[in-house]
Amino acid sequence: MTRIEHLPGLDAAPHANVFPEHEPKTVKLALDAGERVPEHDHPEREIVLYLIDGALRLALDGEPHALEAGDVVRFDGDQDISPVAEVPSTALLVLARRSPEEY
Question: Diameter of the chain by CA atoms?
């Protein structure tokens, strides 16, 4: 089944689940300047983050990474994750279940 969503129309804040109940989990993240997501993890997931607009500081296990619009980051969801928006920012995240051979 093909399903299309218009990303700007998803307005749940700060997270909007693009395709609820479907894998891989796909989330739109919208943060105002200075807004942060508290440190957390996503065990047994591989994550791809595409920064659509804005600028983020992404802490992964405490190590800071500066991201600007257009950057794509792939990382292990077992890490502690905490993004902070430098300016109003929008990102698309795909959280894929890791295959059993990757454990």
Answer: 40
Contact 76, 102 (CB under 8 A): no
Domain count, the chain: 1
Question: What pTM did the predictor assign?
Answer: 0.87
Query: For 18-55, how does the pLDDT look when each residue is reduced to its tens digit (9 = 90+)?
Result: 888 889 999 999 999 999 999 999 999 999 999 999 99
Domain that holds residue 65: 11-102
Q: Within a domain: residue 63?
A: yes
Contact 22, 1 (CB under 8 A): no
pLDDT for 65 equals 98
We report the CATH number of the domain holding residue 55 as 2.60.120.10
